[in-house]
Every structure is written in structure tokens, then in C-alpha cells.
Amino acid sequence: MSHPAPPEQIQQRRRQLQRQRRNRAVRSLWRFICMCGILTGSLWGICQLDWTISKPEQVRIEGNQYLSDTTIRSMLAISYPTSLVALGSEQLTTKPIERGLMVDARVERGLFPPHLTVRVQDFPPVARLIRDPASETQIYIDERGLELPISSYRRSVSQSLPTLQLQLPAQGSCPQWVPLYRVVRTSP
User: Fold this and answer.
1) pLDDT for residue 109 is more than 70
2) In terms of C-beta density within 10 A (0-12 exposed, 13-18 middle, 19 or more buried), how is residue 96 classed?
């Protein structure tokens, strides 16, 4: 048989347990206050950042060997300024894909500093279009049928322009260009 503990010892043990509970409660309260502070600070910081694309230079173009960055940026459906978060990949690539500029496009967002990176695949001009022989405008077409003026291409491309010429009516287009070009390319 064990002897009951003296009342002073029981009272001392009770005070010690109460102190431990109080200390745990105070630590939990401080943890909660710190976590609320961190969360509030983070949300405030996020709200304060200016995650907007306000100028074309914030759109980085990669993968283009022939077309100039300016040409590709002008084909993207971006109105400045616009929120980086609100821009969708489909919104950015629909118009250029419809025009034949991109086969596959990937858009990546960067937050610090805010920017977009658009990866494209472009093709060299393969023929000169002649719609009006008197016109000074030089329009070139690539193997997929994308028609662009010479100013749309990089300077390095303008030094190696194709000699093949394609004459079309003033407002006409050439829907058979792709199969026609395959035949011309394989022909001696």
C-alpha cells in the first residue's frame, strides 16, 4: 500500500501543472499572433507589388531566328498596361497561331521583375510576293504561307533574301502555297 501524498506536495504539483498549462497557452497565443502577422505581411506585400505588364519590353521573345521581336510583340493580343495574373496563355497565343506565326507557343510568367517570356518558332522567308510590280513594298512569304513585309524580319535575314518570286493578283492570296512550295523545293 502506498501512502497518500501530503497536501502541500499535492498543492505544489497542482500549481506546477497550472503554470505549465499557462505557459503552453501563452506560447500558443504568441505562435498564433506571429502566424497572423506573417500572413498579413505577406498579403500586404503581394497587394503592394505592381505585377503589371506596362510596356512591350516586358514581353521577352525567345526562339525567333527570323522575325523581329517587335513584329512578334505586335502580333500578341496585349493591351498595355495589363495585369500579369489576368493574362492567359490562350489569350496571348491565339492570334499569332491563327496567323501562322507559331506552331507551338509556351508562355511563362516572371514575377520579379514582372515579365512574360513567349517562346515561338518562326521560319525564314522563302519567296517574294509581287502583287503590284510598280509598288515599292516588299512582301515575303514563308513556307507556311505567312505573308509579312521585309521590315518584319531581322536585319540579318534581309541580307539573305530568297530569289523565288510569286506573282499574285492585288487582293489575292495563295491557299495552295504550302503544297506548291513543297513541289518547288524538291524540284531542281
Assistant:
1) no
2) buried
Distances (CA, A) of 99 to 39, 83, 148, 150: 45, 25, 11, 17
- DSSP type of residue 67: B
The position carrying cell 525567333 is: 64
**Which of 98-107, 125-134, 145-154 bottoms out in mean pLDDT, i.e. has the lowest?**
98-107
The cell numbers describing 92, all together, are 496571348
Beta strands in the chain, from DSSP E residues, in sequence order: 52-53, 59-62, 82-83, 106-110, 115-119, 125-130, 139-142, 147-149, 165-167
Pairing between β-strand 115-119 and β-strand 106-110 as defined by DSSP bridges: antiparallel
* Burial (Cβ within 10 Å: 0-12, 13-18, ≥19) of residue 48: exposed
- Output DSSP code: residue 116: E
- The whole-model pTM stands at 0.59
